[in-house]
Amino acid sequence: MTESEATCRLYTAAMLAELSGVETWRIRNWQRRGWLQACEQQHRVSYFDFAEVAVARQLAQLHQAGAAPKQIQAQLRKLQRAAPDVARPMAELSVVLDGRQILLRSDSGLIEPGGQKRFEFDGDEATAETPATILSPAQFLASGGASTTPAATLAEWALQLDEQGDLPGALDLLRAALAANGPSAEWSFQLAEMLYRQGDLSAARERYYCAIELDEDFVEARANLGCVLAELGQSELAVAALEGAILHHPNYADAHYHLARLLDEAAQAGDAETHWQRFLELAPESPWAEEALQRIEAARL
User: Fold this and answer.
1) With a threshold of 0.90, does the pTM exceed it?
2) Which CATH number, 3.30.420.40, 1.20.1300.10, 1.25.40.10, 1.10.760.10, labels domain 135-299?
């Protein structure tokens, strides 16, 4: 099987987000936590198989029911203790979601991992608190705490604050992690995503550029940069960024998709069709496959 044939049966983080009804950044955070696992990586692009689609949908259901990340983490720990020989409980065990609870399905009905029926998880063990539970991020940084805290810990706290909805605090802590650690392509990419969600497109653009300067093979940064440049009205640069992503990773379906849309908007239907066709070859089961077919049909009328 060729690399292209293997890739077409897999899903990128953006596709997984679309299929599970959550934001792409949340999929990335779940992957960073280890709740989702890529079956392979190419040029820093994570690819997930169909089993991870089911896990992502379960996590999305828990999130949409109001389960906080620390509650989900505590429940996953209980599952792991109940089945220590199972590496991925949510992927390998028969689980049922009831609101914010994870229950195991057995012959006798729905039970909690310890054996009790419909165990309540409201009293789940707490995870390590972020500094935000004691001080605001600004107070924590002003107190000098960041100077004595490992950069990786600051980045982990940033992820937690992000999930709690404190985007400004997360930005402050991730900047502190970069200041403590020095240049990092991955953290620059995360910071760019946060800045984009905050609506600061110009700052996001610069951070994506930084990620690419640190790792020229970071094709997700190239593709995201192209999308940001397009929103900023810099269409020629956007096309160049997406073409750069494809040059580094010709089988990156997401880049073909975004480039095709951009070329369509620029009334370059012929060039756009080439990328729509390539996108369909690479991701025939993508949630955007129908759109690609419609665009091709419209161009031929």
Assistant:
1) no
2) 1.25.40.10
